[in-house]
């Protein structure tokens, strides 16, 4: 009989969001009349921007014509999309990138997982706590860790607590690490790292030969001037960082699927015998072997985000969600609940009222307010006692959810 990958058996629980889905299904089956408002998983609710939708339709029509039919595209993505992103999204930040440094994909979740292919298993990985569960679980799956302890920390991983005490930005580890996951704006805490904080990480990585995996999936939601949108705004980052971006939240592509990875030409790792080797070359080799490119209509739709009309319409949708974030943040604060995030990010990270555990608050919120959120402990042990609400709902639902919470917990 074929042997399985035993590493999967080390995983403590099912993936967080399906587990939440299961509990909500159980509740709605038992309470079919309850109007449940879902502010759990960060899934968008606004339709695609009209200019994006039109480009998507037009591209599908292309596929029905002999002249414009598109078969296999470049595995790395079409130049017209890559160049549009570089011009519109990186150049204004003062970041210049070559076309060969960007790889278009079918989403950032896969990229964050797939990138592990190009690194040796004996690298020491540093992960925030709480954290987007994909970083942790994919390292377990690939076999980089031992078993989890009773708290949920896996042997071999360096966990970096992100707490109120450090403004939810991890501190430099005492132990030397090789791969560092950073996410700003942060999922789940909704907080952001400043230029100075990121500079300290870039300096650490360059001094220690470490690589930063920088997840910027939520950069489009930054509203505070001066907060970096890209790790490459920090001097020295091109020799130590890979950046991930996503169209999922930025342009409503959670169902459409498109993301990107930037791997600078300057970025090097070392071979077993200590010679330098280009990570861009390795990622290109991996991409051309294991991926045939994001689909043509999806890339056309993504490119339309950077048209004048598409850009303006997309920005309006982001503003809509950020207004939801404000409503949640202000409403909950009025109810005496301590909130973080929600200013430069669509997530609000709140302290559970009355010192409830994260899952107890989840159950109470679901059962008594019919509102779904995400328990902070699902993102890691340091998330215990916290809870995440997403601002991606319909505005009327967000307003109603906040009212229900205020009625239950307001003073
Ligand atoms: C979340 O809710 O954390 C995200 O939607 C998950 C994801 O982007 O995969």
UniProtKB/TrEMBL annotation:
Keywords: Aminotransferase, Pyridoxal phosphate, Transferase. Gene3D superfamilies: Aspartate Aminotransferase, domain 1 (3.90.1150.10), Type I PLP-dependent aspartate aminotransferase-like (Major domain) (3.40.640.10). Pathway: Amino-acid biosynthesis; L-lysine biosynthesis via DAP pathway; LL-2,6-diaminopimelate from (S)-tetrahydrodipicolinate (aminotransferase route): step 1/1. One of its GO terms (biological process) is lysine biosynthetic process via diaminopimelate. The keyword Zinc-finger does not apply. CDD domains: AAT_like (cd00609). It catalyses: (2S,6S)-2,6-diaminopimelate + 2-oxoglutarate = (S)-2,3,4,5-tetrahydrodipicolinate + L-glutamate + H2O + H(+). Its EC number is 2.6.1.83. Its cofactor is pyridoxal 5'-phosphate. It holds the Pfam family Aminotran_1_2. Residues 35-405 form the Aminotransferase class I/classII large domain. One of its GO terms (molecular function) is L,L-diaminopimelate aminotransferase activity. InterPro entries: Aminotransferase_I/II_large, DapL/ALD1, PyrdxlP-dep_Trfase, PyrdxlP-dep_Trfase_major, PyrdxlP-dep_Trfase_small. This is LL-diaminopimelate aminotransferase. It comes from Trichloromonas acetexigens.
